[in-house]
Write a structure and sequence with these properties.
About 85% of the residues lie in helices and about 0% in strands. It has about 70 residues and is mostly helical.
Length: about 70
């Protein structure tokens, strides 16, 4: 479980702090998905319901911060 937490935390950190295009960020999420499912086989649904939304929320928050609230809504 510790290794799983580290994979999720490191991925979240990279998504928050790194300089990536949207496509590269999605690729990072997919790589993390592979690592997580190697650690926890058969838990695809948990990844899709819990972890992927966390990662996508980070990307959305970052987009709002970079583009500004009004521009992101248009």
């Amino acid at each position: 479980m510790g290794r799983l937490k580290r994979v999720v935390d490191i991925t979240a950190y990279w998504l928050e702090q790194g300089s990536f295009s949207h496509e590269e960020a999605l690729s990072i999420i997919e790589h993390a998905r592979g690592e997580i499912l190697n650690l926890c086989p058969g838990k695809e649904e948990v990844f899709e319901l819990v972890i992927r939304p966390r990662f996508l929320r980070i990307l959305n928050e970052r987009a709002l911060a970079e583009w500004g609230t009004m521009e992101a809504m248009n």
